[in-house]
Structures are given as C-alpha cells and as structure tokens.
Design goal:
The complex is a heterodimer of chains A (727) and B (75). Chain A is of the alpha/beta class. Chain A is built from 33 helices and 10 strands. Among the domains of chain A are: 163 residues, Rossmann fold (3-Layer(aba) Sandwich); 96 residues, Helix Hairpins (Orthogonal Bundle). The N and C termini of chain A lie far apart (84 Å). In chain B, strand 2 and strand 3 form a beta hairpin. Chain B is globular and about 30 Å long. The chains are: A alpha/beta (727), B alpha+beta (75). At the A-B interface, helix 3, helix 11, helix 12, helix 17 and strand 10 of A face helix 1, strand 2 and strand 4 of B. Strand 10 of chain A pairs antiparallel with strand 4 of chain B, so a sheet runs across the interface.
Chain lengths: 727, 75
C-alpha cells in the first residue's frame, strides 16, 4: 500500500533551535536550494515515519510575519499559498513572550499550528515554569515540549503533527487575538464589506485579510486588486477610510497600535502560564560577553579569531590543496600517456582538466572556511562580531556582519562572496558582493610580485601595500556611492538579537559546511567548465598558423648540427653539448609558442583591444595576459611568460628581465597592477556572484563596474604619472 | 529622556517609540514597546551600537535608533 504524504513546515524565530530540530528529523536526507526568485536558502527533507511519507520544510527564521524582509515574505507566502498540512512553530521556551508574537500571527493565519516549546530545560534553569496545558487551552493549540540539541520530544512532536493533520480542520477559530473595541469594530466592518461584495471568494481567510488590509499590508493589497478586479478598488477605499478613522482615534498608525495590542494580548497569556522564580541564576552567557565584547579586549580577541580562521583556511588548506593539485597533475599526466595526440586530448587536458582543476583546488579552503563560519554562527559569536564591527562598517553604509565576507576577500573572493549569505537584508548582501572583489585576493599577489619586483626593486613591498590599500579605499567609496544611489535607504536597522552562547553540535556544523560546499561544487562546476573551454579554444585555435619562421626545419637543423658536433666531440665534453642542444631547442620551441599565442584568436583579440590598453601604458601582451586572467588571476603571470617566450622553469627573474626590455616602465607596471587589482573578477567569482545575487543583471553590473573603475584608475595613474614627469 | 542617553547598568521604562516606517515597526515587533522594562547591558567598544535586555533577552540597537525611544523612570 502506498503510504500517505504529509507536508510539515517548521516556523520559528531565529536562534529558536529550529534548524537543529530540522537536522534531527531529516538527518542527511536534505535538499538545499533557493526559494523561487530570491536568494533565501530553502531546505527540505523527506522521511518515512509512523507509516507516513513526511516532507519537512524549514521556513526561514523570522520574528514576525509582516512583509518587511524577504525571509518573512517567503515564510508567509509558503504558508498561504502552498498550504502545508501542519505548521510547527518552534518556540524558544526561555524567550516565551517574544516567541509568542510570531505564534499569534501564525495562529491568525488559516492553518493548522502546533507549538513546540523548545529548550524548556534552559528555561527551567533560568527559573521559569511554563504551564503548557494552560497555553494549549488558552490558544486552542496542541503544545509539546522538545529539547532539540538532546533529541528529546522529537518523536512526540511528529506524532502530534500527524494527528493534527488528520483531524478535521476549521474547528479552532475562536481563540484568536482580541483587539480593542475600536479596532475590532473596524475589522468587523471591513470583513462584512468584503463578504457582501465578494460572496466570500477572497484568496485567504476574510478576518485575516481584513486585519492585514488595516495594517496597510502591501502584498495583500496587491492580491486583493488582482483577484477581485474593480471590487478591489472599492475594498481598498473602504480600508483607507477605516484606517484614517483609526489613525485619528489613536493618534498613531493603526498597524503600530495593533502590534502594541498583540503584545498586550501576549502579556495576558504570559501572566497566566509562566511563573518566574525570583532567584537569579548565574548567567554564563553574560559572563562570556563580559570578556568577548569587553571595551578593551573585545577587539583584540575578535582579531585573533579572524586571524585564526584565516590561518586555518589558507595555511591548513594548502596541504589538501597540494594533494588535489598533485592528483589533477597525475590524472593529466596519465591521460597524456594513454591518449593519442589529437584535438580531443588537447581539449580534455588543457581545457577541461586544467580549468576545472584550477577551481577544485579551492575546495579545501571553502570547506574549512565554512566550517569556521558555521562555528561562529552556531555558537552565537557571529552576532557579537557584528556588534563589535557595526560602527566601522556603518560608515561605509554596511552592516556589521559584512566585515567577515569582506575580510575573507583578501584570501579568495569565491568563499567571501558565498559568506555574504549570513547577511539578512538583500541590499546589504548585494552591496557586500559588489564591494568584495576590490579586496585584493591572494591569486593576484603573484602578479604584483612579478611586476613590483621587476620595476620597483627594494620598494616593491611598499608598492604592493599601496595597491592593497587602494582596493580598500575604493571599496569604501563604492560602498558610500551605491548606498546613496543604487541601493538606497533600507540600510537594515541594526535591531539584532544577541542570542545566548551555545555549545555547537558537530552534526549541525558538518551539515552546514557541506550544504554550502555542495553549492560551490555543483553550480560553479558548470560555469567554470564552459568558461575554461572557451578560453582554451580561443588560445588553441586557429591550428594552421603561418609562422614567420619555419620552426620545424629550424629545429631539425639544430638537432642535426648538434648531433654532428656530439659525434665529433670529446667524451668529456658530451654532456655539456647535450645540455646546450636542449637549451637551443627549448628556445626555438618557446619562440614558436610565443608566436602561436600571438596569432591565436585570443592574441588577435588582444591586438584588437590594444588601443583600449594603450592609454594605460599596457602593450598587447599585457592585454592578452589580462584577458586570460579571466579564468584565474594567477594565469596572468604564466601568459606573460608564454608571450615573452620565457619558460616555466626559469620564471620570475627571466620574466622580469624580459618585461624590462619590452619597453615596460615602472609607471606602466604600476598602471597594470592597478588594473589587475580592480578589473573583472575571475570566472569562479563571477559564478559565485551570479549564484548569490540570483541574477545575471547584478553579475553583469559587477563585471562592467569593476572593469570601468579599473580602466579609469589605471588611466589616472598612467597619464597622471606622465604629466607629473614620471615616464 | 532618550534611551541613547542612558548609561550602562541603568534600567528604565519605555514611554514612547518614535521614528517611522520599517525601523519603528521592527523595534516594536522585537518587543521594545511602551511600558516595557529595559536594562542597558553595555555599549560596544566604539560606543555604538548598544546592548539592551528586554523581556529577558539581549538585543542590540544602533545609537541613532535608540535615540528614537523615549524612556522614563530611569534608575
């Protein structure tokens, strides 16, 4: 027999332990995606229990159901439109009063609600006693006790949810929030008006719709207009009149009055069901905060944690990175030996494996970083770091929580952009994502080292520091600029809960880490794969290049003449001559590679783009190198090497020499460094931007903006420098 | 007196929450409303934001937001 399907949605405040309960119920059988159209993570899991197929949905954590943040809209729309069989409201028992605010709102919606009083043990240690039976009777809602992190009460919770789903609905309509007489009158009048006009065919429960209209709820207003055509306008007019009346009566906005009255209603319930003993226990969390957010040592400790996270991510991460690198190298070498030389092999080895390999090496970094971030979040330290940093970040128009993503940008932009998920407001998130690429990532460092080393000698360190500093300055300017134009206003209010510190559960940390890393692997994979193939094809084709020199015959000649010399030479001199032969052949090979690169499509594009780079003092070789840097910034150095016919083995010194003799000046080197700092982010970052902003629009904007800024800044540096007399 | 003028370790009763739009609504929804007892736990090292205790839990507000909350009966 087929077992019955039920959908259970979990709602609750942030930090109520909702995600812990979700993890316990579903274990590893979770599917993580995004809610349609927005970048709020959607988690669902399916389990088979008590003869039912249960689909569990983890709604975003919210304090309320008013449509002011995406999370709230997402959660409410899900309950309204998808109509889950049961909504379980996870209530933090030690925070009953505030939690009941969301609970009463859920109660007003037309859905079956079950309350889970979570962390009741914590409430007890704080001297609170809760009369669950009375709560259940007062609100006519089944109530169960759970202790999420100890796996207590979860089965009872599921059983109750199933039982509730199987009972006939619409029985408990009575125990709702009662508002004051004036408001109740307005609700009744609006309700009657709507009933008369529409024969009761509104999309949602009429009392609830009336309440929302009186609260001036934008989304419900729109829905009413959509579903009832001309009648909608009449309804809205009546609403407006009633709102005006209430506003005069209370001398305040009706929605504020109603918020007030809901809390009043809750206060009444609390008085009946909760007894607080007067004896105050020691609050561990407050004691921890005496140290961690202390006026004097709060910052040093914070910096230490960040430093430790950096160290772990980029130092410990290098070991597995080396293994992966070696693995990719081994795979490439093995296939090289196995496959016959043809175009497919070149595509596979130089395009796909090289491209994807260059991104997959970041996986250890990302795993470690997300583990650290999960640790910060699950212990409750994340909100403390935002508390510490908010003043500084607010100057740029950002939220305190933007600090961590921006700082991570110095390591690698990909995890940094993904770390912006911790920000709640979408505008903050987009602004952070737009700014992060200006944090000079570690892949750009080799480029600076080569250029600064070749042209600035002993002052190279200061120059590189100045480049980093320029990135920071530009990110501040960008932040302020966008905050006052594109992403105006709505600098999210810093009304942030500082939840008690908790010991994190390893399972939750691992699930957290893996969820995010999986997204990296899955989504990045596609874009990177396509991008690498394109760049490879551009540099590999066309095949039939008419070389200015016949390299093959030149190599044959060289080989022949060295062979002859070897035959004639003394036994003792032979190794010496063999070495000379290899070097001579290598030089010819490199010259051929350089000419091939020059005449390939990407070389031609570079030459076509030369007029664009000329005002920046960058020659066509620099232009081509910058173009290939699109795949990954490190590649800029190796492309420069190829174009200047310098091999891999003798790298930096030889390249520096070649660069100096190619007519590059310190000023043009500086201009190129500025350009590298600022121009379009690498392929992996772009994929991350696309993913995290959820739109191609912001992705294209980021590319266009950063490249324009790069060009302008490099232009100022080069032309300004020339005007000042530096050549 | 304004909430933002209170010192660390002081308690008071909220008289009025001003401001407008989303921020005001958000502050109210978090339980910072007329008649509620509020305790100033601490100011951040850079004197902004500040940490409060209301209804038994800890919450932070920026000084500019706290300036919109009027309090009385400070002790």
């Amino acid at each position: 027999m087929h077992s019955k399907n039920l959908t259970i949605a979990l709602a609750g405040n942030p930090n109520s332990g909702k995600t812990t309960i979700f993890n316990i119920i579903t274990g590893t059988r979770q599917k993580v995606g995004n809610w349609p159209g927005v970048t709020v993570a959607k988690k669902e899991g399916r389990i088979h229990k008590f003869g039912y197929d249960l689909k569990i949905i983890d709604l975003p954590g919210t304090y309320s159901l008013t449509p002011y943040s995406i999370e709230e809209i997402v959660a409410r729309n899900y309950v309204l439109d998808e109509q889950p069989d049961v909504v379980v409201d996870i209530i933090d028992a030690s925070n009953l009063e505030r939690s009941l605010y969301l609970a009463t709102q859920l109660r007003e919606l037309d859905c079956k609600v079950l309350f889970a009083l979570n962390m009741a043990d914590l409430a007890r240690t704080r001297g609170m006693k809760i009369d669950a039976d009375k709560l259940s009777r007062l609100l006519d809602v089944p109530v169960v006790f759970t202790v999420g992190n100890k796996n207590e009460g979860i089965d009872v919770l599921l059983k109750q949810a199933i039982k509730l789903a199987e009972t006939d609905a619409k029985t408990h309509r009575r125990r709702n929030v009662k508002y004051s007489k004036d408001i109740e009158d307005a609700i009744t009048r609006l309700q009657q008006f709507i009933e008369e006009k529409t024969d009761g065919t509104t999309p949602y429960n009429i009392r609830w719709t009336s309440i929302k209209l009186l609260e001036d709820d934008k989304i419900i207003k729109e829905r009413i207009l959509q579903s009832t055509n001309d009648l909608g306008l009449e309804i809205l007019q009546t609403t407006q009149a009633l709102r005006k009346h209430l506003e005069q009566r209370f001398d305040d906005d009706p929605q504020i009055v109603m918020t007030d009255e809901r809390y009043g209603f809750i206060a009444g319930i609390i008085k009946e069901i909760q007894t607080t003993s007067t004896k105050q226990r020691v609050d561990v969390s407050r004691n921890i905060d005496l140290v961690l957010t202390n006026r004097f040592i709060g910052f040093p400790i914070f910096l230490f944690f960040i430093w430790a996270m950096f160290q772990l991510t980029f130092t410990l991460g290098t070991y597995p990175m080396d293994w992966i690198d070696a693995g990719v190298g081994w795979l490439s070498a093995t296939l090289d030996g196995l496959l016959p030389d043809n175009l497919f092999k070149a595509l596979l080895l130089d395009g796909i494996i090289a491209g994807v390999g260059s991104v997959i090496v970041f996986l250890p970094n990302i795993l470690i970083l997300f583990f650290c971030i999960a640790l910060f979040e699950d212990t409750g330290y994340m909100s403390r770091s935002a508390f510490l940093m908010d003043k500084i970040m607010h100057l740029i128009g950002l939220h305190g929580k933007s600090f961590i993503p921006m700082l991570m940008g110095f390591g690698c932009n990909v995890p940094a952009i993904m770390a912006s998920r911790t920000l709640e407001s979408e505008k903050d998130r987009i602004l952070t994502i737009l700014i992060t690429p200006f944090m000079s990532c570690s892949a750009k460092l080799p480029v600076y080292i080569i250029l600064a080393g070749a042209f600035f000698g002993a002052r190279a360190g200061s120059v590189i520091f100045a480049i980093y500093f320029l990135g920071i300055i530009l990110s501040i300017i960008t932040g302020r600029l966008f905050r006052s134009t594109l992403l105006k206003g709505a600098d999210a209010p810093f009304v942030m809960e500082l939840p008690p510190y908790r010991v994190p559960m390893l399972k939750s940390l691992l699930i957290h880490m893996w969820d995010r890393s999986k997204i990296f692997l899955k989504k990045m994979g596609k874009v990177i794969l396509i991008g690498s193939i394109i760049i490879w094809a551009l540099s590999a084709f066309p095949k039939n290049i008419s070389y200015t020199v016949d390299y093959d015959s030149k190599m044959n000649e060289l080989t022949a003449s060295y062979e002859a010399e070897l035959e004639a030479a003394d036994q003792a001199l032979k190794p010496q001559i063999a070495l000379e032969k290899d070097a001579a052949l290598l030089a010819v090979q490199k010259a051929r590679q350089a000419e091939h690169a020059e005449k390939s499509f990407i070389g031609r594009i570079g030459k076509m783009a030369a007029p664009l780079f000329a005002p920046l003092g960058i020659d066509w070789r620099g232009g081509v190198a910058l173009l290939t840097g699109f795949v990954a910034k490190e590649i800029v150095v190796s492309t420069l090497g190829v174009l200047h016919a310098v091999g891999d083995e003798d790298t930096s010194e030889a390249l520096a020499k070649a660069l100096r003799s190619s007519g590059m000046t310190p000023l043009s080197a500086l201009s190129m460094m500025v350009f590298v700092l600022l121009y379009l982010p690498c392929l992996a970052s772009i994929a991350a931007i696309r993913r995290e902003t959820g739109s191609y629009k912001w992705m294209s904007f980021s590319i266009a903006y950063s490249t324009t800024v790069a060009w302008i800044m490099a232009f100022i540096v080069y032309q300004g420098g020339k005007l000042l007399g530096y050549a | 007196m304004r909430l933002s003028e209170m010192k660390e370790g002081q308690s008071a009763t909220i008289v009025h929450v001003g401001g407008n739009g989303n921020i005001r609504r958000r502050i109210l929804e978090m339980g910072i409303l007329k008649g509620t007892q509020v305790y100033i736990e601490k100011y951040a090292p850079l004197r902004d934001p500040l940490e409060l205790i209301v209804k038994g839990y800890h919450i932070s507000l920026r000084v500019e937001e706290a300036a919109k909350v009027e309090v009385d009966n400070v002790r």
